[in-house]
Amino acid sequence: QVQLVESGGGLVQPGGSLRLSCVASGFSSSSYPMSWYRQAPGKERELVARISSGGTSTMYADSVKGRCTISRGNVKNTVYLQMSSPRPEDTAVYYCRRSDYWGQGTQVTVSS
User: Using CA atoms, how far apart are residues 98 and 9, in angstroms rounded to an integer?
Assistant: First the structure.
């Protein structure tokens, strides 16, 4: 059974930093491209970042380029999203995705 569980969200101040984690079970996450999406209130869900199955290729939405890093962790089946200098407009529920499978999301609120 495929499961994706996100964690690491919460309240963060503008200019701070945060790291989101996605722990996958039921499959080997290193065998699949993995993505982070986010959905802000009243907006459509959007792609934030993607990492290839081998971890050698990444892509980022223009809105987070230079501030976010997606990576595969040394802990097996974990994918991270590191964000530096978060902004209020980064406030959203962040989701981990593999193909048709989604996690339940973790809320990130950027506010002073």
Answer: 19
